[in-house]
Here is the input.
Amino acid sequence: MSVLYFSLLLVMAVLAFALARGRASSGARAAAFHSRPNYHGLLAASLVAIPMLVVFVIGAILTKMIAESQALTALDPALLTDPLRRGAALREIVEVANGRFRGNPSITLQAAGDTWAYVQRVARFSIYGLGLAAGIGGLMFALRSITPDLKARNRFEWLVTVLLMICAGIAVLTTIGIVFSVVFETVRFFQKVPPMDFLTGTQWSPQTAIRADQGGSSGAFGVVPLLTGTLLISGIAMLVAGPIGLFAAIYMAEYATPRFRSTAKPVLEILAGIPTVVLGFFAALTVAPLIRGAGEYFGLSVASESALAAGLVMGMMIIPFVSSLSDDVITAVPQSLRDGSLALGGTKSETIRRVILPAALPGIVSAFMLAISRAVGETMIVVMAAGLAANLTFNPLDAVTTFTVQIKTILVGDQEFDTAKTLAAFALGFVLFFFTLTLNVIALAIIRKYREQYD
Amino acid sequence: MKTLRLLGASAIAIMAATSFAQARDQIRIVGSSTVYPFTTAVAEQFGKTGGFKTPIVESTGTGGGMKMFCDGVGVNFPDATNASRRMKIGEFEACQKNGVKDIVEMMIGYDGLTMAFSKKSAPLKLTRAQIFLALARNVPGPDGKLIPNPYKNWNQIDPSLPNRPIEVLGPPPTSGTRDSLHELFLEPGAEQIPVMKALKASDRKAFDAAWKTIREDGVFVEAGENDNVIVQKLDANPNAFGVFGFSFLEENISKIQGVTVDGVEPSHDTISSLKYGPSREMFFYLKKAHVGVVPGLDKFAIEYVSNRAAGDGGYLEKKGLVPVPKDKLAISQANVAAKKVMTGEGLPK
Amino acid sequence: MTELAQTLSPAPVAGVDFASGAARARLKKRYRSEARFKALGLAAVLVTAAFLVLLLADIIRKGAPAFFEHRAQLSITLDPATIDPKGTREISELRSADYQILVRAALIAQFPEASDRRSRRELDRVLSSGAVDDLRSAVIADPSIIGQTRSMPLLLSADADLFMRQKSRLIERRKGAGPLHVEGEGANISIAGGGNVFAVALAEMKTLLAARIRAATAELAGLQAGGTSATVDAKRAELEKDIAALQARAAAATSPETLTDREPSLIVAIGGGLLKITEIGSSEAKAVTLVPPKPGAIITEWSLLKITTPESNRRVSDRVAAWVETLSARGLIENGFAWRFFTNGDSREPELAGIRGALIGSALTLLVTLLLCVPIGVAAAIYLEEFAPKNRLTDILEVNINNLAAVPSIVFGLLGLAVFLNAFDLPRSAPLVGGLVLALLILPTIIIASRAALRAVPPSIKEAALGLGASHQQAVFHHVLPLAMPGIMTGTIIGMAHALGETAPLLMIGMVAFIVDIPQAITEAATVLPVQIFLWSDLPELAFQSRTAAAIIVLLGFLLVMNAAAVILRKMFERRW
Here is the structure.
């Protein structure tokens, strides 16, 4: 039905476009029109399409409501208030109406199905009728209002601008949505657990008993072990990605031949495009056993989900990130600084170390900050390769856990919104959001300031 | 034209959003991760042979599943739940309170609760008393009073045990296995200790608190619902023990072995004959109110307890289920056929 | 001015001799450090490349086997009495019939001795339950084949399949020397050789004792340290006795050894049959029949198979292994491409699990994302770049979008859970919700890319249009936007590739359930490819590991295609101004 309606709508709109365009371009006074004929056409098409669309949306919603209530009343009025039976009854009614019911429907069910079909039929005719009327009305109005003075272009452009603004607004709504959904639940969490306990507690054991008669953990919600765990893994990642990414960027920006660049760049891009679930699989099944084996060889005891494995692979993940951002800031250093240093007899590496890097330092720092924020928020690698044990340790061979791992563990399969445990996930999410946001704002501010320096 | 396209797209989105709540024609099951492999196997079979959609099974733990199951009647709530232990009276009451009045109960098989560890280590025999001493938060000290658990190595509990750190990966409270750990290992274990037995007689409350509380000093690690992860960890760490169902032990027999408990090794025969102490029954609960609402729910239940599935030599046995004796299975089958509703009598606390 | 001139002019370098040895050494050192620095840079790039190669090689090595499967070509009788006893040929009857009986019968035809209850149960482990499914769908597709006997390829179970793959590594085969005399049948077989035919095998078994002695000794040593008590003493005595017994056995080089399931299995292959040795001496052995040999076969030709992994440590028993081995020897097992990996939904049986459901789920999810994201994202970018008044509000908006791009993806999952599932009550696990969440996730990416593309169009173009009397919108939509289109599309494709690989937020909205059916609509429960990978990676069966890697290969394949499309677009349409 909707396909047909939309085809009709399309036909009407095209018709309106053609008629209005024709009217605005024909006759002796064509040159006197304020707007080009196309704009008259577009405006007329909008005037046809928008009312028809409104009719459709309202009509569809009304139809659904009326058809369901009528059919259910025909079957059994009690169903209207019984949400469980309602769904099943509606499915059967629709099946009967469409002739897909298996077996023989009862008389009342058949009647209900017929009612449903009847309402649908009536509604369809009404929607088509009303829609057509609205379309024709819009068309008449549009055609009648076509005069040389009509500022059709301005009106149409106003419509487009409104549309564009709505779209841009959605981006804002998203942020507000995130902040609200997370903040709301976080506040509820802090009603159950005092914020100071949360921020300074050194024990994390959220698995409280779910029944009064059960043995569970005491329910400690101290975020410190998670923070240290997150920082440990991100730290390892940065130890890997920082130097490698920076050196790669320097080499690519300053030394590499164009041919080398054109092969090495895609390699980095491919690495950046590998989904983190793949890296997590690799970390858990290949890197972690390797590290464990190596540790045993040297007589060290390595946890099977050591922070080292997750950190190493995460470091590999953010290398492209660091290198492409650093590459940008290094190339942005004005050529004159390079030339000056080289002219004074500095070697290339001296130029880089003494001139370019100091000049690019703010940019590099912000690149690192962005990389850290990426590492802190990364989920899949740590979910698959790091552990759940909230150990307060800085030993990279131990198992630690992170914010993201805990959020995932708490929320998967659990949909209760009134326990401290579930709400804790939102509080963690909030901390994570806040942390990455702060890093980001600072980093972007630095970059902006730095750009201005050379512009 | 862009205007039209955009509006069209959003209209479709609105339509999709308003028409979802209508009907669900697919069974949704939640609950125990121990029963999960069996339910998924039945679900697959059912989807292939029954002419209905394949049910969706989510592994949430027995307790978590019970909670979702008992939250209410309606398409937004699961139709059935798996349980690696019987429904508790408290859960039954919660169900009643939320309008989930008619529940059909089916016993589907046995499972032994095992403590398992890597095959790289030598076989080990433990008594449940030793397990209690290793895991409880408070244990009787030298003077018989309860003190915080001092044991860090197995041989501190009993010199004949190996000199290795105690390291146990266990389930969180959402899991039915956690309840079983308390009821099948720790409670009987506590009773094996004379001091504790005396305590039970004198101060029941203190006794219960003792076996219901597990230590939180890092010796016992809650390893999450996913038993598979535990297997991988055990394989990597020869000192660590995992607590899970026998079916998992059997599935991973190439990597791990079970602790012999009170002199009995966990095996198919010892569990089905109830010789192996920590044996438990597994259950499947469904809402009678959903039968006829969600198509195929009753047929699914019939398939689950049919002889070819849960019976001796049925396809669930291949998945590691220890089948119940014929007469007991017949009771389940009769319950399902008659859709007999639970009365709540005789449920454990 | 003079000061500047002074600072710029080189300081007088009187007394410095650039040709001196010290200066040369200094220069040399500087050049060395230059070379070192450059090498470090190159090394950084190479390390990254090496990691990528290692990652891809590891995944391909792990995943390749999952694209192939073993099938047993068996002749199967489609007995009407089993399939359709009522003779109605109704689909529902045909669907619920017990095809397992037929499949079992086909195997029993190969191994007639395995018809007792216990053996039947073990026989079921040779073939996958997928064999039953294939048979069922064949019958339903064409009921006229009922009653015929036909040869059909039946899928091996995952364990048997793994055994076939690892056979060459698992089994050591040694040609037997000299004639053997086999007597008895069933579980009571005695084998006698003309000479010390089993001496080598026996010696190998004896060496295994040494390891057990070592382990027991170590345990004993551990006990000594533990102090004394009654239990310790008892245990010590027991251990000492064990060690003494083991040592005696090891010392007696020719005494027979009993084999249990904790030792490697020894199997005599003789006359087309397989006999499993339970007790081995140097010239004789006791054995049980796994597959009975043909009577009257030449008994000088035999070989000794050793399955190195003890029976208790593997999923496939000696008997099942023997059957599979025999089927293979009879030329009935074939290896073929596993199409079902692409045509099946998820399954708990690794050999049946496929990615079709996940692929369709991904496609539906991405469709929702695309429909929402591209129009909104591009429109927002155009507004912000071209029409937005420069004021505080739009400034905030801009910062906002940049920061949104860096919000961890899991936080978007929280948003989906709290807003779409909890507040709007949308269905769990549905591609609709997944698509919404992913759309919000990549919206900033698309906006930023589109804005960059719009900004890259030189202002002169717009100015020229404006100068000729075009309105602002005309200039943008007629001139700037078409030129920015390749850039926008590239950005969109990269954003979609990102969405395709995203996992974490989808875990929050319940897309992690076990879902077998292929989703048909955006409101049905579904999972997506990355989540499927995550789910499989957690499963303990070895066969699932290769399935996981195979699914990763498919995912990476899609990503490669998308990225290549983006690169080609960029190359084809990109203009440098």
About this structure: Residues 2-18 of chain B form the longest helix (17 residues). The mean pLDDT of chain B is 81.
